[in-house]
Amino acid sequence: MAAETARIRWPRIVQDMIDDVESTIRDQDHSLVVAEDGTKIARRLTDLKRDIIDDKPLTTLPSQASPDFQWVNDRIEESNSWSWLDSPWLFTECYMYSRVRSIFLESSSWKTYDVFERQKKSTFINSQVAVQELALRYIDTVSELADSRMTPEQQSALFLEMAQVALWGNATDLSMLTHLSIEDLQSLQGRETIQKQQRNIVDNDLPQVWAYLTSAEFTSGERMIDIVLDNSGFELFTDMVFAAYLLEFNIAKRIRFHVKDFPWFVSDAMTSDVQWLLEALKSTQYFANRACMDALSSRLEGLFEDGKIEIASHWFWTAGSSYHEMHERAPELVADLKSRDLVIFKGDLHYRKLTNDGLWPHLTSFKRALGPLVRQGGPRILSLRTNKADVCVGLESEEQLKELEAECPNGGWVRNGKYAVASFTKGD
Questions:
Q1: 136-425 fold
Q2: CA of 45: how far to CAs of 11, 51, 376, in Å?
Q3: Which of 30, 206, 316, 369 is spaced 20 to 30 Å from 392 by Cα?
Q4: Residue with more model confidence, 210 or 183
Q5: 243-295 pLDDT, tens digit each
Q6: For the whole model, what pTM was predicted?
Q7: What positions does the domain Damage-control phosphatase ARMT1-like metal-binding occupy (predicted)?
Q8: pLDDT tens digits for 118-128?
């Protein structure tokens, strides 16, 4: 998986960046300085692509550009030999996006440019069938159930369904779906697929999460839930719907979304993506069926305006290190997360960072794989992740592992995005 990513996916992603910059220069009316800077950026990106293909040594970054870059430089200098194809996968993939960031920062006119914006927007727009389906389902659910007396069993069933919507929204990760068509994306997002996929959650702690959310330990507290976002687009939309459910059904009092500071791993959500999506949901150009869309978009906008959903960011979310190092590198972030009643991490990269991207035996407990992050009473963590890399922990038995290998030989179930985990620990 790592070799395929480095040799095939990385050069392809950088080429997409080059094409985007050149398209922006060509299609928009820019000053001469902006156009010249854009041409220089495209040239630098071409050099980056060539470095990856030729397996050149990793080079240092301008340390003043980011709180993380000096740490990155120290790791490169300590290694004395890391190259693009001979270095730790997690570190080097993060390094690639940091290096792209440093290239754009060299130009004052391009430093806030999102080189993935077109791709993120077009993919969301092409998901309009799934967006409208989920909007209709949610509005119908709220209308039917919000004011009724639900039994504990009904409440649990609704939570499990809504959590799965948030979980499988990750199947639209742009950096992983290089071979899928729009029709494939829509089939991944349909309701029938979500129902079928529950058996594919290989570590399913959602019942334990519900037990915690309905316990006195949670309900007697502030009921503050953080969601560390992964992708923009359809997944961000599912996260918004999940957050609305948690608030409107009085499970949480306040939700905080954590976003990235700069373009990251193609499709990761930034503040601008949240703002654009809220506007897109109101657009008759994108969504002609307004009945459910108007109802949902006004609800979501109201939750943001009332401060019930907040947006936050931290430089550590775009750092090159795993979350095993969070105590050392960002102790204030650890303290902040520990003050919340639940922290939900979305997506494959967060899971890899939570588990130190380690090749743990699959029967290792999730808590053990989190290492020092929870060793002395860390945050209460739920990881919602579709499996797209080699690390996967929390399996119950050798029998379960054998069944998975029979279904998807050679470890395919940990990489193909058709299986998932919903792993939970209270960190105590």
A1: Rossmann fold (3.40.50)
A2: 10, 10, 43
A3: 316
A4: 210
A5: 999 999 999 999 999 999 999 999 999 999 999 999 999 999 999 888 899 99
A6: 0.93
A7: 5-400
A8: 999 999 999 99
- For domain 2-115, give the fold: Transcription Elongation Factor S-II; Chain A (1.20.930)
| Residues found in the chain | 428
